[in-house]
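Researcher: We're teaching a course module on how sequence relates to structure. For the next exercise, students receive a sequence and then see the predicted structure as C-alpha cells, so they can try to spot secondary structure elements on their own. Here is the exercise chain.
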Amino acid sequence: MIRPFDWRDLTLLHRVRHRGLCLDSQLAYTRGPNVLQYALLDMLNPGRTAYTLVLRPGAQASIGQVLLPAGRNGAHIAFISPAEVLEDKDGVELLEALARAAGEHGAHSLIAEVDEDSPGFESLRRSGFAIYSRQRIWQRKPDAPAAAGRAPGSAPSPVWRLESPADTVAITGLYANLVPALVQQVEPPPANHEGGLVHWRQGELLGYLGVNRGPRGVWVQPYFHPAAEDPEGLLAQALEELQDQRPRPLYMCVRSYQGWMTAPLHDLAFEARADQAVMVKRLAVSLRQAQPALMPALEGTLPKPTAPFTQTRADRRSDAGRQP
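Model: And here is the predicted structure for the students to work with:
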C-alpha cells in the first residue's frame, strides 16, 4: 500500500535516511541526499511544495518524495529511499504513485536526473520516463589552484556582475536562443537565482551563470552565447566572483548542448564528477480544439453595405424597360 507520509513513519525515515538515491542533482550536491529534513518539513508545510509517499508493506518499506517549486508546472523527484527498491516492481509502483501525486497537484511533467549505470535508470524507463537531455557534473575542489590571471597589457577582462530584475527579459532571451526547443517544453527559463552573474558586452547579454549555494557546495548552471569571446577567461573571472569564505566545492552542470566547455573546465582544474541522463515523464497532454470566435458587433444583425453597388449592363437594361 502506498500512502502519504505521516508521524508513524518517523522510525522508517530514520532507518533509511542514508540509503536513498537523490534524483535532483542540484539538491544532492548543494544540500546532500539526506532526506530527513525535507520529509519533516513536508509534514509541517501547509503550502506543501514537497509531497512524500510511503510504500508499506512490500518487499521492503520505502519512501519517495517529489518537489514542486512554486509558480512552476514541472516537478522533480527529490529522493527514493532505500535505493534498492528501484530494482524490483515495488520501485516502479512507487514511481507511478509519485507521478500521480505530482499530476494531481498541477505538475505537467516529472523530472529525474540519474546516472545511466545506476539501477534506477532502467526502472525509470519502465515507468515511462524518457531521456530529453544529458549533462555532465564538473567539480572544482576548494583547494584547487587559482585560475591564471591575464598577462599585463592584454585586453580588458570581461565584467561579471550580480543579476538584477532588469536582466530578466535578457536572461529569458538568452535561454530561448541556447536551449533546444525539446528541453524548453519541459524546463522553464532560469528564475529565482538571487546570486546569479550576468556578462554584458556592447549592450548584449552574452553570459549568465545561475548560482545556488548550499551547505555542501555551490551549484552553477552556465548559459554562454556563441558570440562570447574568450570563454576560458570569462570562466576564470567568474571563479573569482564566486569565491566565498566557506571551503565548499564548486559544481558546474554542463548540458550536452554546451559540450564545448569541456576544454576550458579542464584547464581551470575542474574534474568530471558524473555523467547523467536527464529524464522526464509527461503528466499532461496538450489538446487543440477549434473554438468559434464570437463577434458581438455582428451577432443577431444583418450586414449593411457601406459603399454603393455597381450596376451591371443587365441591370441597366432592366431599369430601362421599366421606364414609361
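Model: If you want an answer key for the exercise: Residues 150-155 have pLDDT under 50 and may be disordered. Residues 89-104 form the longest helix (16 residues).
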